[in-house]
């Protein structure tokens, strides 16, 4: 018998597809694009109507109303989509807040607002009048109602908190991704606590916004109403005078005109002007007939008031330049009068309140910003405190322990504090272990070791990786003799130099790979050749400027060996070649290392500094990768063929001169300020040492060290030497010697000049037969 409850493959397939579609839609809803769109929409609905009143004219209203309608549709779509696809959203706290915030948009859209209000016989911003319009004056209750309506709009501010949640939400905080059985998870507990506090802050702030207007003392200006009342009775006296005698007129025509002009100015308060646009009253000058007052001239003050042509009349023309909410109608009709039928007569006045409307819009924007800041700061503060106190400490310890067990190199880059709080001793201890491992391996070495470790075992079958790098070799001059002289003190000496070498190299994207007997191996990506040269130059400059290192020339042990002839110096080389990097060792000892003939070639190039009496030598493979700006400060010095090198190559140098380095003592800097780790951006000694504000190649034209080192080179020296070098390559050695001797006259003692001259003179200034343009160096 068939099982009626068995699920068919088609139903199972359809269910799977629905789940995938639901997850995709949820990812879109939670995605960054939707968050940015809704953020823009939220900001617009918060300030759009106030911007309309403050910064635009009536002609642009329809465009604003269309955008408000689109925002309303987007909010509705968002509520529906969240209700369907977001877990625990439907009928939640934020669901109702979104509903109320969406409803608060309706008063800003006349297309929806006006038909709804007409069902209840209410017309908002009424400026058209007739004799059936009720005659009332402003009251305090009306002021409270106006404030209440404005306060409802502030409910939209709760979306500020939602924006904060959009941009700080993590997948781990989503209840759908949490293990429901893990009730003690710090992330889940912290999220619940943060949501509860956020809700209470929102409710508290909204209650304050709703209740504060009721607790404030309000003053209402009824000058317009009472002024219109006086004009009504004075103007009506013209009708009584015609019926019962001229003596019943309250005043003459000049006084009447003066009253009208004064009434038109009744709204000049604190420098604000609310002009009278239209006046419909009994006219004293026309026997008290109720009519439009077109113009009134006051002979006393010599002022004239004229009604506004487009904004006059019981029904305002569509050509009126002011919005309905920018005009105010004042109506007066007597409740008790001596003449029969006078109760049906009413006086009307219409004022231009645009300036008041603009001031209110500005104030509304300021209040919205202030309340929004309060809501956002309160929500962020509570969430941050929850994360700091509950989530972060617990999760960090758990994560650190897991990572340290799985991979010792996955640690946080924290600085170990000298005073460790008792509640975080375990956390700090774990961090110390991780930091020591990372310092030991270095940045590049840590990456190699991370790839070597798989799960809990070390895989020594992992192949190395080959890539092209800039190979930098730095060697302390006479390092073997220094080690023999200083003995135990040599560690302090080498570490002082290592600090400068490592700091300069690291700050310009170099990776320190190896320290060996007073020499350092540093690599850069091939694209960072310019940074590598700049780091080498800075290393030499900092070394010769460091007083604690230069003081070694007076060390008794050094003096005993070198007889006051020693100055701490380094020899450097830069070359580009392929390197195989990987881990070498066994289960007993393993270290990241670098293997390549290019490294040996780099060491051979570095040793040429002794022959050429230079501080830095670069291969042509490196020189060709430099930025043209950096190439300008380099000098070609020879073409050579080294043992085990595949082919001959040109070599270059950068002329270093510590004599012209900027002196920090002349800049009133003390020892602490001068230390390399305390150097600040924009320091006059070393431009761009940290947080460079320009490209590295640009520093070759502005850096004080480079300019100082090159300052001592005579202007014609490079040209003479280059000419001599060209004749040297061509085999015309006599001409070459002439140019080189002229160059030596400008810069005596130049190592490359002396070496080339000596080499050519040993062959009687004549190139050997079959001269290939380079020489062999073993």
From TrEMBL:
It comes from the Eukaryota. The chain crosses the membrane at residues 28-47, 62-81, 93-112, 201-220, 361-383. This is Guanylate cyclase domain-containing protein. Keywords: Membrane, Transmembrane, Transmembrane helix. PANTHER family: GUANYLATE CYCLASE DOMAIN-CONTAINING PROTEIN, OXYGEN SENSOR HISTIDINE KINASE RESPONSE REGULATOR DEVS/DOSS. Gene3D superfamilies: 1.10.287.70, Nucleotide cyclase. Signal peptide: none annotated. InterPro entries: Nucleotide_cyclase.
């Amino acid at each position: 018998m068939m099982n009626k409850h068995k699920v068919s493959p088609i139903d199972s397939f359809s269910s799977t597809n629905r789940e995938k579609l639901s997850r995709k839609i949820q990812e879109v809803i939670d995605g960054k694009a939707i968050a940015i769109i809704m953020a823009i929409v939220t900001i617009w609905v918060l300030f759009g109507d106030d911007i309309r009143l403050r910064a635009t004219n009536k002609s642009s209203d329809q465009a604003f109303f269309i955008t408000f309608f689109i925002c309303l549709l987007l909010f509705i779509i968002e509520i529906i989509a969240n209700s369907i696809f977001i877990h625990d959203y439907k009928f939640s706290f934020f669901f109702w807040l979104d509903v109320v915030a969406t409803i608060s948009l309706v008063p800003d859209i006349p297309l929806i607002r006006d038909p709804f209000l007409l069902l209840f016989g209410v017309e908002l911003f009424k400026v058209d009048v007739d004799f059936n319009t009720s005659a009332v004056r402003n009251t305090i209750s009306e002021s409270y109602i106006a404030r209440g309506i404005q306060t409802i709009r502030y409910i939209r501010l709760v979306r500020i908190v939602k924006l904060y949640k959009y941009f700080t939400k993590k997948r781990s905080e989503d209840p759908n991704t949490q293990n429901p059985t893990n009730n003690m998870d710090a992330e889940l507990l912290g999220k619940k606590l943060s949501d509860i506090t956020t809700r209470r802050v929102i409710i508290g702030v909204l209650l304050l916004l709703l209740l504060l207007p009721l607790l404030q003392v309000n003053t209402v200006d009824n000058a317009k109403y009472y002024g219109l009342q006086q004009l009504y009775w004075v103007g009506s006296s013209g009708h009584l005078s015609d019926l019962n005698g001229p003596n019943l007129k309250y005043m003459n025509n000049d006084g009447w005109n003066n009253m009208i002009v004064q009434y038109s100015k009744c709204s000049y308060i604190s420098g604000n002007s609310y002009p009278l646009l239209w006046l419909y009253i009994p006219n004293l000058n026309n026997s008290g007939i109720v009519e439009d007052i077109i113009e009134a001239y006051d002979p006393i003050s010599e002022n004239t008031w004229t009604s506004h042509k487009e904004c006059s009349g019981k029904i305002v023309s569509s050509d009126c330049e002011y919005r309905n909410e920018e005009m105010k109608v004042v109506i007066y009709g007597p409740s008790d009068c001596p003449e029969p039928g006078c109760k049906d007569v009413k006086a009307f006045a219409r004022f231009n309140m645009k300036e008041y409307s603009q001031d209110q819009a500005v104030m509304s924007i300021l209040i919205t910003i202030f309340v929004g800041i309060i809501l956002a700061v309160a929500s962020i503060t509570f969430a941050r405190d929850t994360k700091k106190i509950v989530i972060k400490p617990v999760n960090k310890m758990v994560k650190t322990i897991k990572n340290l067990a799985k991979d010792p190199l996955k640690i946080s880059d924290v600085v170990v504090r000298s005073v460790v709080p008792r509640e975080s001793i375990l956390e700090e201890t774990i961090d110390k272990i991780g930091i020591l491992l990372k310092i030991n391996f270095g940045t590049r070495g840590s990456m190699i070791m991370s790839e070597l470790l798989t799960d809990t075992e070390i895989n020594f079958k992992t192949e190395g990786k080959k890539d092209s790098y800039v190979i930098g070799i730095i060697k302390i001059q006479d390092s073997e003799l220094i080690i023999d002289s200083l003995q135990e003190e040599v560690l302090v000496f080498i570490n002082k130099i290592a600090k400068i070498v490592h700091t300069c190299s690291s700050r310009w994207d170099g990776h320190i790979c190896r320290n060996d007997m007073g020499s350092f191996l540093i690599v850069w990506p091939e694209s960072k050749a310019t940074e590598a040269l700049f780091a080498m130059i800075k290393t030499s400059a900092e070394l010769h400027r460091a007083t604690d290192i230069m003081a070694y020339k007076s060390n008794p042990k050094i003096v005993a060996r070198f007889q006051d002839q020693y100055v701490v110096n380094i020899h450097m080389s830069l070359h580009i070649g392929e390197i195989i990097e990987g881990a070498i060792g066994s289960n007993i000892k393993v270290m990241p290392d670098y293997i390549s003939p290019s490294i040996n070639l780099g060491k051979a190039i570095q040793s040429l500094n002794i022959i050429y009496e230079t501080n830095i030598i670069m291969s042509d493979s490196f020189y060709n990768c430099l930025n043209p700006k950096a190439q300008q400060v380099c000098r070609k010095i020879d073409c050579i063929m080294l043992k085990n090198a595949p082919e001959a190559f040109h070599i270059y140098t950068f002329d270093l001169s510590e004599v012209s380095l900027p002196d920090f003592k002349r800049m009133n800097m003390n020892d602490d300020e001068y230390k390399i780790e305390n150097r600040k951006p924009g320091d006059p000694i070393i431009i761009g040492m940290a947080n460079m504000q320009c490209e590295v190649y640009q520093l070759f034209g502005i850096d004080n060290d480079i300019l100082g080192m090159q300052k001592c080179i005579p202007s014609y020296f490079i040209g003479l030497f280059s000419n001599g070098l060209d004749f040297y390559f061509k085999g015309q050695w006599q001409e070459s010697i002439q140019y080189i001797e002229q160059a030596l006259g400008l810069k005596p003692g130049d190592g490359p000049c002396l070496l080339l001259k000596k080499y050519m003179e040993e062959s009687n200034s004549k190139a050997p037969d079959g001269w290939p343009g380079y020489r062999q160096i073993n």
